[in-house]
Design brief:
With 381 residues, the chain is of the alpha/beta class. It is 32% helix and 22% strand.
Length: 381
């Protein structure tokens, strides 16, 4: 079977518009989560939001009107372009290059201010717009499967390359904070009253976040690559438990992890680090703890990045994969911010402070509405 590697990545988040600034902020324990007033006539609440003025300035610095032929881009599309630009400048696009976009809601904000249905609200149209801008010739692929979308997009790229359909792929993932999303999570009473505390006894809900992330995936390594991570295994399982509630037995996540590790030919003892989903809701964190224990992974160092970035929906899985690879490159584990006391029925080895570690094998997991779960195993080459 053809080997597939991640050899480059980038991200745009409230903590910075490139990976190095994000990594340095994480080392210092900084969080993008703060009180934000997003919906009129509602009190501010904790969310991780990109400064729109800084975003606009950064976009104008790299994309002037002459370059983009006066095309109008939405705020989210500008985030996507800034994330992807450094990668397409370094890696050649060919007729065997895939373009994969992961998102849950895309340009949903357009529906608020327009009386007619705008084209860019359709995910396929948004993907084609970005693909055309950068000169991709293959048909864009959209992965939109709730909050596992970012992890699944990596798996889709891997499997299509291994099937011989493409030789490489650019994968981008992103979502922005919108009134639509906030209203949805409010209806579940799932939004926390403070900066979230994944896996903690006193956790009370999620913080919504926004970000875009991009990775370059290839089957052909060259000598110029600064690093490479082999995608050893992947799996996505839907346990069909409930439209919004996670399985009490962790069946879907357990099966996803088991399948991914079986394909990777990796045992639980070999996993060095788990980048978990960790939304800080009562039932999600409990479900994950059960699934990890069923896989005998309870002693593996684990973190959630949700207290730094909030829950970035379709971007979260890809962004957190990037940070996990950065952890491996820097031999440093980042703590699960705000964790103090275990709040799950099963034990987990939650990382509490920056610590040095040799990281070769990474397990990245994600779970989402509708019973979807996904897992990938990465190996630092």
């Amino acid at each position: 079977m053809r080997e597939v590697f991640i050899t480059d990545y980038n991200c745009v988040t409230p903590l910075g518009f490139d990976v190095s600034s994000n990594w340095n902020a994480l080392l210092e324990g900084k969080s993008g989560v703060a009180l934000n007033k997003i919906i009129e006539n509602q009190e501010p609440f904790y969310a991780s939001m990109i400064d729109s003025e800084k975003l606009e300035n950064e976009f104008n610095r790299f994309f002037d009107s002459a370059q983009n032929d006066n095309i109008e881009f939405t705020r989210l599309e500008k985030m996507f372009l800034l994330s992807l630009k450094p990668l397409v400048e370094k890696h050649q696009i060919s007729d065997k290059t895939a373009f994969i976009l992961s998102t849950t809601k895309g340009n949903i904000s357009l529906l608020k201010s327009q009386t007619t249905l705008p084209e860019d609200v359709f995910l396929s149209k948004m993907a084609q717009k970005i693909a055309d801008f950068f000169g991709f010739t293959t048909n864009p692929i959209v992965v939109s499967n709730a909050c596992v979308s970012g992890v699944m997009a990596i798996a889709v790229a891997k499997n299509m390359i291994q099937a011989g359909k493409y030789k490489d792929a650019f994968v981008i993932a992103g979502d922005e904070i919108s009134e639509f999303v906030i209203s949805g999570f409010n209806s579940f009473q799932a939004i926390g009253t403070e900066i979230c505390k994944p896996y903690d006894k006193n956790r009370d809900g999620i913080n919504i976040g926004e970000a875009t992330a991009s990775v370059y995936i290839t089957s052909e390594l060259n000598q110029n690559e600064k690093f490479s991570f082999k995608i050893l295994g992947d799996s996505a399982i839907n346990d069909a438990n409930h439209i919004s509630g996670p399985s009490r037995t962790g069946d879907g996540l357990f099966a996803s992890i088991k399948n991914a590790m079986t394909e990777a030919k990796i045992s639980s003892e070999q996993i060095d680090f788990i980048s978990a989903h960790g939304t800080a809701t009562i039932y999600n964190d409990e479900m994950e703890a059960i699934a990890f224990n069923r896989m005998e992974l309870q002693n593996v160092p684990l973190n959630s990045l949700k207290a730094y970035y909030g829950h970035c929906l379709g971007a979260s899985g890809l962004l957190e994969s990037i940070i996990s690879m950065e952890s491996a490159l820097n031999n440093t584990l980042i703590p699960s911010k705000n964790f103090e006391e275990t709040g799950t029925s099963k034990p987990l080895n939650i990382i509490k402070e920056n610590q040095t570690a040799e990281i070769k094998y990474i397990l990245k997991t994600a779970s989402g509405f509708g019973g979807c779960n996904a897992a990938i195993v990465l190996e630092k080459a």
